[in-house]
Amino acid sequence: MVSPDRELWKCFGACQDGGDVISFLMKWENITFSEALKELAQKAGVALESFSFEDRQWKEKEKLMQMNAFAAKYFHFLLMEHQAGDKARQYVKKRGLNKKLLETFLLGYAPQSWDSLIKFLKKKKYKDEDIVQSGLAIKNEKGRLYDRFRGRLMFPIINARHEILGFSGRLLSSEAKEAKYVNTPETPLYHKRETLFGMHVAHEAIREGQAAVLVEGEFDMISSFKHDIKNTVAIKGSAVTRDQLMLLKRFTTRVILALDADFSGAQTTLRAIKDAESMDFRVDVIQFDSGKDPDEALQNNPIAYKKTLQKPTPIYDFIIDLALKRHDPQDPYGKKEIAVQALPFLHSIANPIVKGHYMKKLADILDVHEHDITSMARTFDKESEKKRVYQRTRNTSPDDRYSTLQKYILAVLVQSDHTLKVCSTIASQIQPEDFSIPAYKNIFTYFIDYIHSKENDQKNFNLTSFTATFSDPLQAILDELFLFDLSVVPTMDEHDTEKTFHKSLLELKQYALRSRIKGAAQNIHDADSITALSRKLAQVEKELRIL
């Protein structure tokens, strides 16, 4: 509730927060006091010349935003007017993007040059360390800088306040032996899991339409905007995150997932559901007939796509349908697998009426008593309680911690959208022997074999391709890994995921080495082995202390 007369606000919901206009903006936009004060001053037309921003984080972010703005104008000029952008102009024309769309989204072109942007930014008086920190440049082993984005169509990532947080660069040719997309890395300004492409043009339409359509790629979003579906935003990466849902919660409590129709798209959909349910979102899903993604569907038949959008599939119907496609509902064991796949989601529904509806529907489809479905669902209460206990304590037993680390590391690998080269680098740091759980050891062995078979492939890791030859038991475990909530692992640093993951790899190695030393100690003739393993353990523990 907001009281304009008293200039106060109060939330009577779960958070019970309240305060003045500055605290409201801080809470609503998730920004600092300095950021809120500056934004309100700009809206009121008040100058803050005498105000000294001591907030170091704000100064750092402001510098990065200014640098990104210069870079965006530079890229945009090259695309719109310079001869260096000829091929890029032909490409966007072929993709059906007119001048107005290019200007609305401030699209640009990064030339095939090692340092043209660096030279441009240095003329603007930016230092090497600032340019590297922004993610626009990379420093090599010899200390020399080179442009991160080269020969790419550039998509600025702009938030609802029209601030440029980072960039996504797409190759113009599918034949090049590089990753199709290169994105700004994690910076003080840009966090992929908190970002949605197109928010600067979509947020008002989302608020007015009381729904947000989530697509996977930038072209999907721009194509939707072009066809007047303006409440559309694109996720960054292959997963809908809790932070992205929190961002959308400011404007709506309904999301329509229009993700790619392949297996990974379906898995991505599933992984977002529990977060959405816990945040009281209504979630629907678009299933495509005329194309494998929204861009293709709109190109093939925009009228059909819009009709589909008006009648999306409720998420829990989608989950049941997905389970039915994978298992035979006439076979007793097929019925069991359908229930195992669908029940964790149906049982998590908060509203008792909605939950009762879907429990009855599943029982009818499987031709079993509703009591049997309810009885099976109770087993998930026990599992959930175990998880809650685990989350409440950081003093986990060593065996539990070792087991969770194995699951966490595999979950990060299968949920990633890294290039295969990056996956190979990660995989080289541990061995199958570091896993004590046989199923996890087998999956990691498959992972290594898959990476090695694709060693000359520059594409990103593809879950569908990876699981093509999996047996059913491992497939079920892989589904569990893909749905694993990475935030349940203690000591997670959400803004430094690279450091967190590296620490987890070292911890896994630490547990594995201790286990091997313990095993070797049972053999009196294994003194040399114990010495060698102890040295490795000492090195790992030294690295952990540094982190």
UniProtKB/TrEMBL annotation:
Pfam families: DnaB_bind, DNAG_N, Toprim_2, Zn_ribbon_DnaG. This is DNA primase. Monomer. Binds 1 zinc ion per monomer. One of its GO terms (biological process) is DNA replication, synthesis of primer. It comes from Candidatus Roizmanbacteria bacterium RIFCSPHIGHO2_02_FULL_43_11. GO terms for cellular component: cytoplasm; DNA-directed RNA polymerase complex; primosome complex. Belongs to the DnaG primase family. Residues 210-291 form the Toprim domain. One of its GO terms (molecular function) is zinc ion binding. Keywords: DNA replication, DNA-binding, DNA-directed RNA polymerase, Magnesium, Metal-binding, Nucleotidyltransferase, Primosome, Transcription, Transferase, Zinc, Zinc-finger. RNA polymerase that catalyzes the synthesis of short RNA molecules used as primers for DNA polymerase during DNA replication. It comes from the Bacteria. Its EC number is 2.7.7.-. InterPro entries: DNA_helicase_N/primase_C, DNA_primase_core_N_sf, DNA_primase_DnaB-bd, DNA_primase_DnaG, DNA_primase_Znf_CHC2, DnaG_bac, DNAG_N, DnaG_primase.
